[in-house]
Write a structure and sequence with these properties.
The complex is a heterodimer of chains A (305) and B (528). With 305 residues, chain A is mostly helical. Chain A is built from twelve helices and no strands. Chain B is built from 16 helices and 19 strands. In chain B, strands 11, 12, 13, 14, 15, 16 and 17 form a seven-stranded mixed beta sheet that branches. A four-stranded mixed beta sheet of chain B has the order 1-10-9-8, with helices on one face. The chains are: A mainly alpha (305), B alpha+beta (528). Chains A and B meet through helix 2, helix 4, helix 6, helix 10 and helix 11 of A and helix 1, helix 7 and helix 13 of B.
Chain lengths: 305, 528
């Protein structure tokens, strides 16, 4: 299994290289540059800036310059936030995004699994229908509606929680709820579906025939199988959650890295966009690997040799 | 890379509580967004100007009402020909590390901003200083600049030619001093909280992008006794509505900008906490005079006069903008007697429409021979609504509009380089309070801003004549003549004048609305 993991990680290197190359040239194709703002710059001033940031060189030369720095572990300076390197910006923001995303993931898993299982066990009852209704709501109402609404109700009207900002543990509550809500819905639906299927499977029927208690049948035999689709969903979902959400960060004013991806692209902050692309790519690779390893642990039919 | 990412991950996962000593008076202040830099020589944004005003003090500064008052210079004199300014520096001006602020510090700073390698975005604003432009272009050495420290307390600045708005220029953040010791020791890292040395009312405590910038009172500041707010937390708001919610929740005491779509409801809820004040800015459409249709002055005039600016300001911008019938905003300095409005400004809209149709027919366009124009704007809800409304107002003239929408960066790159448009949305916020700062936009050699590619030797001659005139009243007359020529030729269609939009808590005293939208924290106080 260890050998498999190492092989997978080595195999990710060319993938990352392709992603970096593609992203680099895609950014350069977009018209305009980091210094084209509401106030256009004096020609000479622009020339000075381009020289300082090596933008006066041909694009392929800039590409190899970037790769060279990257090989030495240097993500370069931000073109827009000139007091920071891309490392510093991402280093400051990533812990925030990971705390938010991690907590949201945890909350979503706990509540989603609970709701999904209960709904499956009481299939076609009012409990089941309520869960489905909540889940549909969670999936369909976008977070740019949920976030300001929560902030308005709990922050402004009832003053129970901060309306925004990053000052105390309470600051986490509303953003985590916003992030977790659609995930709860998706996970509950997945678990419900797969649990219903598992409860009808041969090995559960066998367990019933042996007279095992219902709780044991559900927890040990049905849930284990029912978890598999959730786990394969969780790989990309976790990577997306942990690398931040532009909507939630902007609306609650949080210093995560989700904003950098969108703002960076709009500002043509080439190095910052590359930095976020690399982080997201690395997270996706790692979480997909974790998913595959978990599969082997949960499903005895899967073997990696 | 991994190391530097993982370390803060391990160290920084615990939230830092911002609990402060209860006695310190803290002002939580909303700002437009994060600064791109705290290096005053590289700044260009309004959000940065607010920060710089609290951290540093220039030779002259703006008071709470945006009037020029002595800063580090306690007095100054100007030579008879208007080209040599001599500043006497106060002897109690100190850096936050206790060192005195001396004339040599300003010499160092003014040379630094002009050095090509500094990459200063606003270097051109100080081009009136002798040889500054040549140094910035790398054609001269920095020591040839017209700045001289006669002694520790006396600074002499020589200009290329008389510049009546020179003191206004010095209030801009580009004129602020850097601490030479900090810059020499730390290079570009002199802006980091542990390295930075400031000479303003406040010193920098921390800067966390996306979160906050914290400043504390600088005890070495010469007016420290009169500074009443001990601590400022500047919060960057990319989303204006977020600031409004946090203001209403009592978490911030002022917002520096507001979502226009909420202005009406905010006025109902928050009353006079909503501040809308005239601002030094013009929202306009540039007409590409190299395109065939736009090269006809009749077409340009007709397109301009048919636009109902009152509707745009009141309905599209919810009262956050005022109708503009001239390029230079009213209330600007050095413009005794006011600007030149379009000669049709007083006509009724119906008469203007008839006149415009007539002009278009003379130019050969009408419902039987419609004109299709390509209108470019940068992506934003308000710009879109404005463009849609204007396209509708142009319909009676037989004008069809093709919209061309880009994001900000691509839009301005297009305006500057490709010039692939007939009509393009743009805006200009004055850097200093002088009509020249608006009228220079369409000088024929202003390749950066003259999106219309307007070339009129008579206009250029008037601008040159104004530049050489040191009598402010005569100069205002010349500039007015230039503006009248502009309004007759109409290379840009002035549409609206900007307002500054703020939310100010009743607990915050000393916030005075002013046309420059400057609000130094040192002039404010907080009541319980």
């Amino acid at each position: 299994m260890l050998g498999y993991a190492v092989r997978r990680l080595l195999g990710a290197i060319p993938t990352l290289f392709l992603i970096i190359t593609f992203a680099f040239f895609l950014m350069r194709v977009a018209p305009g540059g980091p210094f084209d703002r509401e106030r256009t710059l004096e020609a000479k001033v622009l020339e000075n800036l381009n020289r300082v940031f090596h933008l006066d060189k041909p694009v392929w030369e800039q590409y190899f310059y970037y790769l060279g720095n990257l090989a030495r572990g240097d993500l370069g300076p931000s073109f827009i936030y000139r007091d920071f390197s891309v490392q510093q910006l991402l280093g400051n923001g990533l812990p925030v995004s990971i705390q938010l995303g991690g907590l949201a993931l945890l909350v979503a898993l706990l509540i989603g699994c609970l709701l999904g299982t209960v709904a499956a066990l009481r299939q076609n009852s009012w409990v089941d229908y309520s869960v489905i209704a909540v889940a549909t709501f969670g999936i369909t109402v976008p977070n740019f509606v949920v976030a300001p609404l929560l902030s308005l109700i709990f922050g402004v009207w009832f003053s129970l929680l901060p309306a925004g900002g990053w000052n105390s543990p309470e600051s986490l509550v509303l953003p985590v709820i916003t992030l977790a809500l659609p995930q709860v819905a998706i996970i509950a639906r997945l678990i419900r579906g797969s649990t219903i299927e598992a409860l009808r499977s041969d090995h559960v029927r066998t367990a019933r025939a042996y007279g095992l208690p219902t709780r044991m049948i559900v927890v040990v035999h049905a849930l284990r199988a029912a978890c598999l689709p959730v786990i394969s969903y969780l790989g990309p979902a976790a990577a997306a959650l942990l690398t931040g959400s532009v909507v939630v960060e902007t609306i609650f004013g949080l210093p995560g890295i989700g904003r950098y991806f969108v703002q960076g692209a709009l500002n043509r902050d080439y190095t910052l966009v590359m930095g976020t692309v690399i982080i997201i790519a690395v997270f996706v690779v790692i979480f997909n690997l974790i998913v595959d390893l978990l599969y082997a642990a949960l499903d005895p039919r899967v073997r990696y040799d | 890379m991994l190391k530097s990412l993982v370390r803060p991950l391990l160290a920084g996962t615990i939230l830092v509580s911002s609990a402060m000593a209860a006695s310190a008076v803290t002002y939580v202040r909303g700002n437009d967004g994060d600064p791109e830099t705290l290096d005053q020589h590289k700044t260009s944004l309004v959000a940065e100007a607010h920060l710089m005003r609290d951290l540093y003090e220039g030779l002259v500064v703006y008071d709470a009402g945006a009037k020029i008052i002595p800063g580090v210079a306690e007095e100054w004199s100007v030579s008879d020909d208007g080209t040599v300014y001599t500043f006497n520096l106060r002897d109690d001006a100190k850096w936050s590390n206790g060192d005195p602020v001396v004339a040599e510090d300003f010499v160092f700073s003014l040379r630094r901003i002009m050095m090509p390698d500094t990459g200063a975005k606003y270097a051109n604003i100080l081009y009136p200083i002798k040889n500054a432009e040549a140094i910035n272009k790398g054609e001269m050495e920095p020591d040839q600049m017209g700045v001289k420290a006669v002694d520790d307390r006396t600074l002499e600045i020589t200009l290329e030619q008389p510049t009546p708005f020179f003191l206004e220029l010095l209030t801009h953040q580009t004129g602020l001093p850097v601490n030479p010791g900090a810059v020499e020791e730390h290079g570009t890292d002199f802006v980091q909280p542990e390295n930075i040395v400031t000479n303003g009312a406040y010193k920098l405590v921390s800067f966390t992008p996306g979160d906050k910038i914290v400043m504390e009172k600088n005890e070495n500041f010469h007016e420290a006794d009169s500074v009443q707010i001990d601590r400022i937390e500047y919060i960057p708001f990319e989303d204006r509505a977020t600031c409004v919610r946090r203001f209403e929740a009592g978490e911030v005491m002022s917002c520096s900008d507001l979502p226009t779509e909420q202005i009406k409801s905010m006025k109902e809820r928050l009353g006079d906490q909503v501040r809308i004040s005239p601002y030094l800015g013009t929202y306009y459409y540039a007409l590409n005079m190299k395109r065939e249709a736009m090269s006809d002055p009749k077409v340009r005039q007709a397109l301009s006069m048919v636009i109902d600016r009152q509707f745009l300001g009141d309905e599209i911008w919810a009262g956050a903008m005022l109708p503009a019938y001239s390029l230079v905003p009213p209330g600007i300095g050095n413009y005794e007697g006011g600007g030149s409005e379009a000669d049709w400004a007083e006509m009724s809209l119906l008469d203007r429409e008839d006149k415009a149709i007539e002009l278009m027919e003379e130019a050969g366009y009408g419902s039987d021979n419609p004109l299709t124009v390509e209108l470019a704007y940068n992506n934003s809800e308000n710009h879109k609504n404005t463009a849609t409304a204007i396209a509708d107002m142009w319909k009676p003239l037989g004008v069809n509009v093709d919209f061309n929408v880009r994001d900000l960066s691509a839009h301005y790159a297009n305006l500057r380089d490709e010039k692939d448009f007939d009509v393009a949305r743009a805006g200009w916020i004055g850097d200093y309070s002088d009509p020249q700062n608006f009228l220079f936009l369409v000088e024929s050699d202003n390749t950066g801003f003259n999106y219309a590619q307007y070339e009129n030797p008579e206009y250029d001659a008037l601008m040159d004549k104004a530049a050489a005139e040191s009598d402010l009243v005569k100069r205002a007359d010349i500039l007015r003549e230039a503006e009248a020529m502009f309004m007759a030729d109409m290379p840009y269609i002035p549409l609206l004048f900007y307002s500054s939009l703020s939310l100010v808590s009743p607990k915050l005293n000393g916030w005075e609305d002013n046309i420059q939208n400057v609000h130094g924290t040192r002039f404010m106080s907080i009541s319980e």
